[in-house]
Amino acid sequence: MKLKNLIISFLVILTGWFLLTWTLELKSVLIGVGLSAVLSLLFCGQCTIFSEMKLTPKAFIYTIIYLFVFMVELIKANIDVTRRILLPNMPINPGIVKVDTRLKSKMARLILANSITLTPGTFTLEVHDDAFYIHWIDVKHAEEAQATEDLVRKFEKLLEEIYE
């Protein structure tokens, strides 16, 4: 068993518990700690998913920054898609673009792909080696380098600090 994976999975599950229950009553906290410990031992005793994550104050700060940047991009994309729905005469230029990533960590690549997919107007279709194929509701740049800059780099720079 890797202690690092157990600790991180415990903290993730416990954080989820607190977000779901939204209380700090002693009984609820004890139940949450107990369930988190049992679930971590059962399901992450042999997992390696968190082995690439850095457990440093710098990585923690970059995780908070990443969440903030993701939320800003999420809001901007939601506004853009909403405008396209409410104003059907707004031009769209859908298409599939290829973007490259420098990320090597499996978890960082997973988070990048999910961040792109969770942002309205984009959808990660396939990951092949260092290339992501993304459906984009309004392709602004078909060139790989510029599409990579537009869709990937803002997330990638932060994920490198957390996982690479």
Radius of gyration: 19 Å
User: What series of H and E elements makes up the topology?
Assistant: HHHEHEEHH
Helix-residue proportion: 55-70%
Strand arrangement within the widest β-sheet reads: 1-3-2
Low-pLDDT ranges:
none
Q: What would you call the structural class?
A: mainly alpha
Question: How much is the average pLDDT?
Answer: 91
Q: What's the number of extended β-strand segments?
A: 3
Summarize the structure.
The chain is mainly alpha-helical and 164 residues long. Helices cover 61% and strands 12% of the residues.
Detailed description of the structure:
By secondary structure, the chain is mainly α. The chain folds into 2 domains: 42 residues; 107 residues, no CATH class. It is 61% helix and 12% strand. It contains 6 helices and 3 strands; from the N terminus they run αααβαββαα. The protein has a 3-stranded antiparallel beta sheet with strand order 1-3-2. α1 runs antiparallel to α2 and α3 packs antiparallel against α6. The mean pLDDT is 91.
What keywords describe this structure?
single chain, 164 residues, mainly alpha, 2 domains, 3-stranded antiparallel β-sheet, 6 helices
Break the fold down into its secondary structure elements and pairings.
Layout: H1 3-21, H2 26-44, H3 57-86, E1 95-100, H4 106-118, E2 122-128, E3 131-136, H5 144-151, H6 153-163
Antiparallel strand pairs: 1-3, 2-3
